[in-house]
Structures are given as structure tokens and as C-alpha cells.
Amino acid sequence: MEKVYEDPDIGTVVFRKNRRSRRITLRVSPRRGVTVSMPWIVPYKTAFNFFLAKRQWVLETIDRQSEKFKDEPVPTPLEIEAMRAEAKRVLPARLSELAKKYSFEYNQVRIKHNVSNWGSCSRKGNINLNLNLVRVPENLRDYVILHELCHLRHPNHGPEFHALLESLCPRHRLKEKELRKYRLI
Ligand SMILES: [Zn+2]
Prior knowledge:
Elements: E1 2-7, E2 11-17, E3 25-29, E4 33-38, H1 44-65, H2 77-101, E5 109-112, E6 119-121, E7 127-130, H3 138-151, H4 159-168, H5 172-179
Parallel strand pairs: 2-4, 5-7
Antiparallel strand pairs: 1-2, 3-4, 6-7
Helix pairs in contact: 2-3, 3-4, 3-5
The structure holds zinc ion.
């Protein structure tokens, strides 16, 4: 059981009920984004308030995680808009192509700009792709798209998810590692 919240600065925050959780925990990962795990009996509202109380910490953690890239130039708003235009031109088309090729059906696709995740897939089958994907090599871009498509069948990162992804995108764990060399800007 999970709920997704779209934070304007952080991007997707996943609230997940977990049978093994004994308390509310908050995790920030460069690839998997921000996740709040909570025991089954805790209401989502309580976990959401917990997240709000730590929101500043989350933003700082994301900053710290990308600190190793701090000497890279920051893009101007004009550059971001150019990336967005390029993203809208190429990403939905590639998503549609890969979905057809492997018989996936998604609902809507949106191009997003945030610094926490390369992509996400909602329970309703909506896929978000980060406009930063236009800055990475095509094989890594395809990896992210296939990763999100596989979430349509497995909305988690369990063994079945990884087996499916590996069958469509060989050596996907290596690609995930390579992707970490790129910073979300
Ligand atoms: Zn995922």
C-alpha cells in the first residue's frame, strides 16, 4: 500500500505502508528518490506531517548528495527551457516506442523538472520523466524509461521487477550505476 505526493521542489515522495516497519522512517536516495515507510497502523496523515517536519532536511540532503558535482555550472532558466523543449520532443516519442515494442500500456506521460528522481510511475499508470534525461546517453535514457514501464507491472523494486527489467534492458544495474555520474540540475 502506498501513496504518492508531488512536492514542488523535491518531486515525488512515496509513502509506503510496510508490515516490517516499527516506526516512521524517511529515506533519501539519489536514484530512488524520497521514500517514507510507516507501520501498517499509522495513518498517512501522521506520516505526511512527519515528512513536512523534515522537509528542510530532505532538501539539504539532496543538496549534499549532489555536492560532488558542485563545481559544475548551474544552468540558466533559458537553458532549462531549451532542455524542456528537447525533452518534450524526444521523451514521449521514445516512451511510446518502447511501450509498443514490449506491450506496455500507460496512461499519461508528463515531463517534469526536479532534482530528486529521473522518472516515476504512479498507481494510475501515469509516467513522469525528468527533463534532465536529454543530458544523458541514449542507453541510459532507455534504461530509465524501461525502469518506469516495468513499474506498470511491478510497482516496487522486488526480484520480479528486476528480472523483468533485466530481460528488457540487459545489465540494467550497471546502467543504474552509470546514471549516478549525472547530476539532476
Ligand atoms: Zn523504480
